[in-house]
Amino acid sequence: MISYFSSGFSIIRNLPFVLKGDSLEKKLRLTLLIAGTSSIVAGIYMVLFNVVRGHHDIAWLYAASTLLGGYITSAAFCSGLKRNLYIIVHALLFSIILLLLLDNYHSIVKRSEYNYLMALTIGSALVLRQQSNYLSKIFPLICLAFYLLFIATGLTWQSGAFRLSIPEEPGFYIVNCSVSIIALLLTVFTSRGDYSETDLIKRELSNAIEKNQLELYYQPQVDTNKKLIGFEALLRWKHPVKGFISPEVFIPVAEKSGLIIEIGKWVMERTLQQMSDWDRMYHLSNLMFSINISPLQLMHRDFTQDTLLTLSHHKISPERLKFEITETTFIYDQKRISSVIEHFSQLGIKWAIDDFGVGYSSLKSISDFAIDDIKIDKSLIMHIFDNESAAIVVHKTIELSREMGLNVLAEGIESEEYFDYLRDKGCNLFQGYHFARPLPAGEAALWIRKATT
Q: Domain EAL: where (predicted)?
């Protein structure tokens, strides 16, 4: 007997692993299985209960709810989960309302049936939190509204008309019932919320573009003669309360939330607009502008088309653009990435690997892509004088890159000593505070004036 129960418990415990999907989907399917089984058990009992007492009309309604329980149970194992969810939650709500209106044979315990609406309200708020706004927020409120309606009025359908059964001392009764369920529902919504600094940044970042809080700064890039050869466009977020928020804080949040797609389009548009404005003012022709491209942008289906349209709109020559990607880009779909890189390379746009030396790729893997520049990460550059390993990595990277026909740009140059050392090792492009910090457009224009006079 013990082994029998142990075997049964083991089957139940392992049941979630039989269901389809990831962890969240398994939880949702398991909840449907529980709801369906509960509906079947309660339905069968109520069918028998009403048949024995001769209430055959209501017994048919409970039989229908039993069949609904069977459908819910089967949906836990079937595909098309999202479509089934919409059907299931509304069918459950409709069946409960129908039973509350029509089952009037048990008036003494009638109000205990309202617990089904309360269960549907709380259950949908908890279980559907990862679904659409309608299912996760609006539907629980609809259930709550019906719960309060029945609690307050005792509404039923009898003899072809709606009947009200207002309880004695209705204010006392309604307040006790409604305040407790509303408090419970608010607790559920509160427990579902994410009140971390990351979530706050995500919500405020989504409005940053509309509120003109994002700005582009431009950091000069120079050659071995310290002559200006271009700028890197760098995104800055000036929060009205927190001031400037570091890109190291908000860029990962933007990538994780998907906001980087919209932000990336804004950066592209603003950079090309600024290039167009400066072209009219200073008649630029040789300055190169670097734009950072997120892996998610690069993989997005509209990236190529949107970029080409923006280039055409601002009449910018593709040869004056350089797209910078990080080494982590290569962990994504390499075939698609290679196709996008090759397409833009044929148009004349250059590609650079940003922060090289601290990530995923190697010079060998880069040789498989149409890459033009290597940007050695500043975390390596800053240790070339106090860490022999860092110095060797930097030296060999420069040496091998030049042999492969790649330009090498050193980031984080903070003194003349670093500049002289790296120039002597063969590095031909430089960027860092020793030359200039990232500059707002007005100050970057001063560099352009000096370079063109």
A: 198-452
